Each structure stands twice: as structure tokens, then as C-alpha cells.
Amino acid sequence: MPDLVFKSPPPDVELLESVDRLLRDWGTKSPDLQFVSNGVVHQSPGVVVFQWTHAADPNLIITVTLDDVRRARYLHVAAADPDSAALLTTGLGRRFSTYSVEELRDAVRREGANDPAAFVRLAMVLDREDEASSRLIQEGLESPDTEVRANAATAVMHLRWPGFRDAVLRARLRETDAGFANLLEALSRGYAADAPG
């Protein structure tokens, strides 16, 4: 299920309070929509993840990530049932201002060289393979800038679209940065493992 990337989010405390308040309101109106806040469930340099779990279904989880590394605030719904995840994501998306796929594609076109994390933000909101996004990410893999290539590779890892296979193999063969070459090698092995036969 794709993430929702918040557009011009309010200060972090207000954003978290807004999500929490909305989930409590939903729970008041419908017993089927009761979520319990788990607070902070992950913290690493520049990244903090807050989580809410459905009261009756521990596999139905909503997270909000405050990600200073990728300069983004985003929400993810995880569920065993993809339809439940899609319904919740759609409902939450209607309540908050979030980026569309096209807006994030435009950001990669305009700012990808100066803001390499734009590639990852684009990957977060994609729910199906599309040619325009695929082409942009593959172009990122060919960038002369190592940070751009690394972020494009992270987008590939997030999406794992079959159409990236050949671009990853080509990028691995010409990569000169040792650290990034290791990432491409891991990606290549993943695609080889997924290959039929």
C-alpha cells in the first residue's frame, strides 16, 4: 500500500495531534475503527516513527514517520487485508493535504539533482508500476552524482518493480563507488532470485 506524504505539514506536534484526534473521532463514531496509540516505536538519527494499532486487529497498524533524512512526513497503513489498508489510506488521505504522484514526479524532474531524496518520496506514493515514474528513477540510477544514484536505488528497493531489473544490472556493472556498488549487488541478487526458472 502506498504511503501518504504530507504536503507542507504543520509542526510535528500538531501533525501527530491531528492524526491522533482523527483516529479517536473515528473510534467514537464506529467501534470498528478504534485505534490505540503506541507512541514512539522507532527512533534513529533523523527519523522518528509513531504508531497506532487497531484495538481488535494487531495486524492493522498506522504509522506516521517524521523523517528529517528524506525531508518528509509520511503516513503508512499496514494490514493483512489490502482492501482494509486501501480504505483507511483513502479515508486518511481525504483529511490531510498530501502530495499526488504527479506532484512528486514533477519534484524529481525539477529538484532531483539538488534534492535526491525526492526519488524516495516518489517511490513511497506509488502503488503500481508506471512508465513515467520508472523512467525518472532509472535516469536517477545513471546520474553522475553518487547521492542521486543511491536515492534512486533506494526507490528501486522500495518498489521492486520487475521493469527495473535490467537498469539495476547495468548500473551495477558501471558503478565505481564501492559502498553503492554493494547496494546494487544486493539489488541484483534480489532480482536474480525473483527471476523465473
List the helices and strands and how they pair.
Layout: E1 4-5, H1 12-29, E2 35-44, E3 47-54, E4 61-67, E5 72-78, H2 82-95, H3 101-111, H4 118-125, H5 131-141, H6 146-159, H7 165-174, H8 178-194
Antiparallel strand pairs: 1-5, 2-3, 3-4, 4-5
Helix pairs in contact: 3-4, 4-6, 5-6, 6-8, 7-8
Task: Summarize this structure briefly.
The chain is of the alpha+beta class. The protein has helices at residues 12-29, 82-95, 101-111, 118-125, 131-141, 146-159, 165-174, 178-194; strands spanning 4-5, 35-44, 47-54, 61-67, 72-78.
What fraction strand? 15-25%
Give the H and E element order: EHEEEEHHHHHHH
- Mean pLDDT across residues: 92
Q: What does the main sheet amount to?
A: 5 strands, antiparallel
Strand order of the largest sheet: 1-5-4-3-2
The number of strands is: 5
- Whole-angstrom Rg: 18 Å
How many helical stretches?
Answer: 8
Q: State the helicity in percent bands.
A: 40-55%
Shape: elongated
Low-confidence stretches: none
Distance between the termini: 28 Å
**What class, by secondary structure content?**
alpha+beta
Number of domains: 2
